[in-house]
Amino acid sequence: MNVREILKNYAAGARNFYAANLAELNLSGVNLSGADLTEANLSVANLSGANLSGTNLSGAKLNVARLSGANLSNAKLIGANFNVANLIRADLRGADLAKAALIRAELIRAELSGVNLSEANLSSADLREAALRQAKLNRANLSEANLRGAYLTGAILEGANLNGADLSRADLSGSNLKNTEIRQANLSRANLSGADLTGANLRWSDLSGTDLRWANLSDAKLSGANLIGADLSNANLLNASLVHADLTQARLIRADWVGADLTGATLTGAKLYAVSRFGLKTEGMTCEWVDLSPEGDKSEIFHLSSNGSKKFFNETLPIVQITVDAPLDLDANLVLASIYHQIAQLYPTLHTAPSIEIGARKTGITFRIDTNAELFTVAYCAILPFNDAAATHQNIIALVNILSSQALENLGIQERERIKQLATALSQAIEQIEAINPLQITSNLKASTSFFQAPTHTVVSNSSNQRLNIYYHPAFGKHLMNQSNLSARFRSTSLETSESTLPPVGSVLEFIQSFDYVGQLH
After folding, report:
1. Which of 371, 389, 511, 408 is CA-nearest to residue 456?
2. Which residue, 284, 282, 350, is CA-closest to 316?
3. What is the pLDDT of residues 453-498, one digit of tens each?
C-alpha cells in the first residue's frame, strides 16, 4: 500500500489499517487522526508533522521513524516500539505508552504531560527539556536517560529505574519517587522540593546544589552521595543512610534526621539551625565547623575539635522517665492525657505525647526531648499529675540550687553555663505553670482514679546515656502493702524523706559535665 492509496482510503472513511506495512514510507504531514494502525510496521517511516492524534498504534513498529513535530496527543501506543525514533518536539499529551519501547529515542522538548509511560523502556533516551508534568512513569526504565532540564513536576516515578540518568536542573518538585533506583545519577541543581523519595536508592548520585526542601527522604539510601551545598531545609531524613555522603555546606535547617546513619560522612560547614543532634550514627564523621545561625548566614559559627563531633552529635536522645507503681487503666489514661494536654498549653516543650509502657504492676511514662537543657524542666512538668509532684519538685529545685551554689565556683565556664541554662529554663517554666495551676484545674479528674496516688520513681537520662535519679518514693515497689493506704500513710512523710533521696553532688556534676557542647540550637 502506497501513500496515495492510504490517503484515498482514509478520505473515503476507512480507519482500519491493522498490521499495515508502511515501513520507510514518506508520510510527513499526513492526517491519520483516529486511524487504527495496531501492529502496523512504520519503521524508518517519515511521519514528521503528521497528525496522529487519537490514533491506535498499539504494538506498532516505529523504530528509527521520524516523528519530529508530530501530533500524537491521546494516541493509544501501548507496547509500541519507538527505538531510536525521532520524536523531537512531538506532542504526546495524554497518550498511553504503557510498556512501550523508546530505547535511545529522541524526545528533546517533547510534550509528554499526563502521558502514561508505566513500565515503558526509555533507557538512554534523550528527554532534554521535555515536559513530563503529572506523567505516569512508575516502574519505567530510564537508566542512562538524558533528562537534563526536563519538567517532571508531580510526575509518578515510583519504582522506576533512573540509574545513571542525567536529571541535572530538572524540575521534579512534588514528584513521587518512592523506592526509585537513582544510583550514580546526576541530579545537580535539580528541583526536588516536596518530592517523595521514601526508600529511594541514591547511592553515589550527584545532588550538589539540589533543592530538596520539604522532601521526604525517610529510609532513603544516600551512601556516597554528593550533597555539597544542597538545600535540605525541613526535609525528612528519618533513618536515611548517609554513609560517606558529602554534606559540605548543605542547608539542613529544621530537617528531621533522627535515626540517620552519618558514618564517615562530611558535614563541614553544614547549616544546622533547629536540627536535632541526637539519635544519629556519626562514627568517623568529618566536621570542622557548623553554621548554627537561623538564616544560615554564618553569623553563628561553631568550631569543632578533632574529637568534637562525637560530643556534638549523639546517638541517644535525652529522656525523662516516670515509673508509676500501678498499672494504667482506661480511666486514668484519659485523665493523664487531659492533664498533659493542659500542661502543654502552658509549657509547649511538652507538646509531644509520651510513650507509655504498661505492665502488670507498673507503668512507665517516657518523654523524649531534643536538648539536655530541658531535662529538669520536663521532669518538673511531667510529674505534675501525681501526688508525688511536690516531693519531686522539691528535689529538682534542690538539685539546681546545689549546682548553682557558691561552693561550685571552681567549675569550668562550660559547666557553669550549662547549670545557668538549667536554672533559667526551670525558673521560667515554674512561672508559666504557676500562672494557671493545672493541679487545680484537674483536681476533680484526678480524684476519680487512684492511679495518681501511687508511688513514683523519676529518672532523667542525658544524651551521653548517663542516668540521674530525681526522686524515689519510700514505698515504691512494696506491692504487699495495702496500696489504698499508701497515699495517707506516706503523704506526710514524702516531703520529709525527699532530702535523703537526693543523689550525691559528685554524681550530679558528672551528669552535667557529660552534656553536649551547646544546650540548644536556637
Report:
1. 389
2. 282
3. 999 999 999 877 889 999 999 999 876 455 455 445 444 444 444 4
